[in-house]
Automatic annotation (TrEMBL):
This is Deacetylase sirtuin-type domain-containing protein. Keywords: Metal-binding, NAD, Transferase, Zinc. It comes from Lentzea cavernae. Residues 1-268 form the Deacetylase sirtuin-type domain. Zn(2+) binds at C129, C133, C164, C167. It comes from the Bacteria.
Amino acid sequence: MTWERWLDESDRVLIAAGAGLSAAAGYDYSDTERFAELFPVLHAKGLWARYQLIGLPLPPRLLWGYWSVHVDDIRFGAGPNPVYARLRELVGARDHFVLTSNVDGLFERNGFAEDRVWTPQGDYGRYQCETPCTRETWPSRPIVEAALATYDVATGEVTAVPSCPRCGGEVFLNVHKGPEYVPDHYAPAGERLREWLGDGVLVIEIGAGYSTPGVIRSPVESVVRALPSARLVRINRDHAEVPADLRERAVSVRADVLDVLTGHSTSR
């Protein structure tokens, strides 16, 4: 039984996506060439990939020099993405929902309804107080654009360092990096997903490995276990294995996402 046939037989689909999907779409945090192109100052300091900047302490001007360029490239880039657009095409008119650890907004930007996408790890499209002094969060595009307007490519720094509209303190993007994270903006989508879930759903998990298994990988296994007629398709180049207790209702697709979406993969 191929995963394509399971999709043909399904009226309801849950897309569960990890970093591997966005990497296949060209947003690879380990891409050394793109890093050198966008961040020459940081590259000259011995850094070579975006993943190294996650949690790395930097002076505020250099910190926001990096993050404003990064978020503008990852989150606010113009135009559709062919990988996500192809996935939307495959889902078609089926009743569907999305659960993703990705914070780049690529589902909404490629035809998936915003109210059917749950991003429990947050979204680069918003920012919050670092304290936090409030549960409120705000759209990040204005602070990103303001920072970029003062960006100096020679130093990698900006002079327009954002601050909290309430207390004037430090801010950061509204993404889960520690206990200060404010997930309130995304909670309603999580409730809608829980209400939407039901037996007979096909879960298509794409590019979710073991870096944060508690966000995508383990929860979708629990969903399938709890719903007797649910099925799981796990698409992953390196970690496509499925639990033994789900083997009769799970398909392992060990292939690159691009190959899967273009029909060049195999499943077992």
